[in-house]
Design goal:
Order of helices and strands: HHEHEEHEHEHEEHEHEHEHHHEEHH
Shape: elongated
GO molecular function, one term: transmembrane transporter activity
Strand order of the largest sheet: 2-3-8-5-7-6
Membrane topology: Multi-pass membrane protein
Number of strands: 12
Number of helices: 14
Largest sheet: 6 strands, mixed, barrel
Number of domains: 2
Family: Belongs to the ABC-4 integral membrane protein family.
Structural class: alpha+beta
Pfam families: FtsX, MacB_PCD
Radius of gyration: 34 Å
Subcellular location: Cell membrane
Distance between the termini: 33 Å
Strand content: 15-25%
Length: about 425
């Protein structure tokens, strides 16, 4: 039941001890503020990691070859393993039940590209049509590589948005233009954007068959990339991805006569397994931030509890009079708890609002590879508010219980 007299008593008590109340409030407010800042930073880390994985498909498996480290079946150490078209064809056929998108890649890290007076060095990649979806590229003009391009060794090229900006200045139309790519003329049939930004858009794609012919590669390939079919849940997807990775590695090692335990000859990168490990780490970071924040709040709550004990001691005679006049233990407990909860909630809510305002102001200016959009959502703010109420009640319970146990005759006799 609302009692204006009780609220008047609370405000009078707080006003009489302004410094003590202010210091107690600051301890609680700073605890909530630190918690909000830590949780916002944790979300910033998680958002940054998610942004990194948006650059390519999250269920991507990439394969490239290295150099043998162990002797095996009469073959010596230091043998360079070379992947070929046949490796790609056999792997895609053998593991077709796992695979969604697939592409072999023949890349040239620095290809000289010329358009009229403009020139630049960009990464040239010969790929299959599915590579668009593996790289999460979006076509903004024209089209991507198709099967006909590879079948007929077409000299068609798809350029990144950054390449278009560099070479086609003053509003020149890129689609249909002819580029000199490492001494050969290619026709621009498409322009793409990539969520990875300028670094990913500083590439050009040509048919892999054309790339192998243009760079005298024969049937050699640099690497292979696959994305796997979707699964019911994340854990199932990780298990199937690991199974596919293990089978693919076994297949390639057997095909190229590589020791099963040789870790230098075939490299396989499983982005889904990496994603799982990173999300486990970020979950641990979030849990640690919650732990530090809660500990800081507890320190503030202990301060509130100590203040309430002092208040109870100062008001012992008053409490004794109240009980002598018929006040119930419940009314005494409610009186103390109400004051403790009020101090905690007001101070904590101030810290919460201040923390949210700080992130609202700072967040737009914070952008890094693994840290972006630090924020605290409504559910976290609501959870924090509930923590404040519980903390305030906890802080006032022991002093309130002690006040309820005061015997009137003892209270009236004391100084």
């Amino acid at each position: 039941m609302f009692s204006i007299e009780r609220w008047q008593e609370i405000f009078e008590g707080l006003y009489k001890n302004k410094l003590r109340t202010a210091l107690t409030g600051v301890s609680v407010s700073s605890g909530i503020f630190i918690l909000v800042i830590l949780l916002g930073a944790g979300n910033g880390i998680q958002n940054g990691i998610q942004k990194q994985f948006e650059k390519d498909a999250t269920n991507q498996v990439s394969v490239w070859a290295g150099t043998t480290k162990k002797e095996y079946k009469g073959l010596g150490v230091g043998r360079q393993v070379q992947l070929r078209n046949s490796d790609y064809d056999l792997a895609t056929n053998l593991f077709k039940d796992y695979i969604e998108y697939k592409s072999a890649i023949f890349s040239v890290w620095s290809g000289n590209i010329v358009y009229k007076e403009e020139t630049g060095n960009y990464r040239v990649e010969g790929v299959h049509p599915d590579y668009q979806f593996i790289e999460n590229a979006s076509i903004v003009k024209g089209r991507f590589i198709n099967h006909s391009d590879n079948l007929n060794f077409e000299k068609n090229v798809i350029i990144g948005k950054k390449v278009e900006i560099d070479l086609f200045k003053n509003g020149k139309e890129s689609l249909g233009a002819e580029l000199n790519v490492s001494g050969m003329i290619y026709k621009v049939v498409g322009v793409y954007t990539d969520p990875g930004g300028e670094r990913e858009e500083s590439r050009v794609f040509i048919p892999i068959s054309t790339a192998q012919k243009a760079y005298s590669a024969g049937d050699s390939i640099r690497s292979m990339s696959f994305t796997l079919k979707t699964s019911e849940n994340f854990d199932t997807a990780v298990a199937e991805s690991n199974e596919f990775t293990q089978k693919l590695e076994t297949f390639l090692k057997a095909r190229h006569t590589i020791a099963p335990d040789d870790d230098g000859a075939v490299f396989i990168n499983n982005s889904l397994e990496q994603a799982k490990n990173i999300y486990i780490i970020t979950g641990g970071v979030q849990a640690f931030f919650w732990f530090v924040g809660i500990c800081t709040i507890i320190a503030g709550v202990v301060g509130v509890g100590n203040i309430m004990l002092i208040i109870v001691k100062e008001r012992t005679k008053e409490i004794g009079i109240r009980k002598a006049l018929g006040a119930s233990p419940f009314s005494i407990i409610t009186m103390i708890l109400q004051e403790a909860v009020f101090i905690t909630v007001i101070a904590g809510f101030s810290g919460l609002i201040f923390g949210l305002v700080v992130w609202e102001v700072v967040a737009p200016y914070v952008e890094a590879d693994f840290f972006t959009r630090p924020e605290v959502d409504f559910n976290v703010a609501l959870t924090t508010l509930i923590i404040l109420i519980v903390a305030g009640a906890f802080a006032g319970f022991v002093p309130a219980y002690r006040a309820a146990k005061i015997r009137p005759i003892v209270a009236l006799r004391g100084e």
